[in-house]
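Hey, quick one: can you model this chain's 3D structure?
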Amino acid sequence: MKEQEIKKLNNLLEGIEEQMEHQSSLWRRFLRGAIYGFGFLLGTTIIATIVITIINNFIDAAPFINSFFGITPEALTEIIKQQQ
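Sure thing. Here's the predicted structure for all 84 residues.
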């Protein structure tokens, strides 16, 4: 190999090493975990809201479910409020 190519590879490896040290820092891992946790919480909240809304609308639209399960939309709403 030419001397110039060796220097170029050496500089590239030093840059990669510096980037690896930066990525493995404790603060960066903590921040990444906090962001992932917040995203998970937000996504779960949105999905749960959509599912509860669909279930509530389905129970309102299908009276046979009320008689089968013996639960009214008002009772379901009250149960949801108690859980919060």
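One thing worth noting: Helices lie at 3-23, 26-61, 63-69, 73-83.
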